[in-house]
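re: that chain from earlier
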Amino acid sequence: MAELIPEWLVYALAASISIGFMNIANSNLSKQLEKNSFKIEAVLPLIAIIVLILAISYLGYYHKIISVQLLTALSIALFLGIVTLTLTLVAFSKGQTSLVSAVLLLNIIVTVVTSVIVFGESITQKQLAGIIVTTLGVFLLI
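^ sequence. v structure.
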């Protein structure tokens, strides 16, 4: 019996909902930090570097257990996660939550283009039209 809703779609929608709540939490955090005269853009990069060094050191300790490729992939993912969180918190501290969240949706373009280039995935004309309409919709919000 065929699935009514593909399993990947259920997880993607759940992640999307989670990201929405995370954006609200990040917005609240950045505004609270600003109220307390905490300059996010000055401190988070330093914290990010420290966390990255500690994580790579910890993972590097286990390099004999895990492959170099896995260690590299984990390091890149961790680094990009820290950079993303830093930029997101700064954006939320300087703009309206609804507008910042809308602009964050533009990651779709980066993901699609990168997946086509790196993984050789293909997109249909219908999907391309959807990406264009979504992008235009985001720009209409700002």
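Residues 41 and 90 are 6 Å apart (CA to CA).
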